[in-house]
Specification:
alpha/beta; Rossmann fold; five-stranded parallel sheet
Length: 223
């Protein structure tokens, strides 16, 4: 399951994304309304978490644009909790709202409730090209091969790479998604995890064709 998180507060955006990733969701982040719409078009998320107060296009405008062509569940975030904001958001087609501040547990409970209401199976595989990741079973299937079991850290790493399949993902982003906020000194941990994952998914781990080292980090090639 893929969730688009749009909020101009970088710390909160990262916290929400990390919370979702820890719970087994793939998080796509956007820092403003314009980028949120671009990411929505490019990523086709299963759910949108949308801040009302953003520069450029507001959350109201983004929600309205999404609703013009999609019924994907939308959760609005607001710091004010004013009744007119909530009425307007629901009138534009939002499915739920949360007033800041909120706990990670509350966020996850509301996300899961929205997905259940929409009839979506959170255990559905996340797939791109020849790679299919089963978040519920902690396994990956490459092409027509048998499922391969993954550890929790391997699952998070592959999930992050698969969400950005074909594109380089920086070590800092991978560290944040897999372990939380970590310093550059922990990159050796990332190298070790990449090595272990390659042992499981590559035909020849010494000459990787799937999980490749890129100039700016690592890239999953699924074609």
């Amino acid at each position: 399951m893929k969730v688009l998180v749009a909020d101009d507060d970088a710390d909160l955006r990262e916290l929400i994304a990390f919370t979702l990733t820890q719970a087994g969701y793939a998080a796509v982040k956007a820092a403003d309304g314009t980028r949120a719409l671009q990411s929505f078009a490019a990523e086709s998320p299963d759910l949108v978490v949308l801040d009302i107060n953003m520069p450029g296009l507001t959350g109201f405008q983004v929600c309205e644009a999404i609703r013009a062509g999609s019924n994907v569940p939308v959760m609005m975030l607001t710091v004010r909790g004013e009744e007119e904001d909530l009425v307007r958001a629901l009138g534009l087609g939002a499915d739920d709202y949360l007033t800041k501040p909120f706990s990670p547990g509350t966020l996850l409970a509301r996300v899961r409730a929205l997905l259940r209401r929409a009839g979506m199976d959170t255990a559905a595989p996340l797939a791109a090209g020849r790679v299919a990741l089963d978040l519920e079973e902690h396994s990956v299937r490459i092409g027509s091969g048998a499922p391969v079991r993954l550890t929790k850290l391997e699952l998070r790493l592959l999930q992050t790479l698969l969400t950005s399949a074909g594109h380089s993902v920086s070590p800092d982003r991978l560290l944040a998604q897999v372990w939380g906020h970590r310093s550059s000194g922990d990159r050796q941990l990332l190298k070790q995890l990449v090595h272990r994952l390659r042992q499981k998914i590559e035909p020849d781990p010494s000459a990787p064709t799937l999980l490749r080292t890129a100039a700016a980090g690592y890239k999953l090639v699924v074609d």
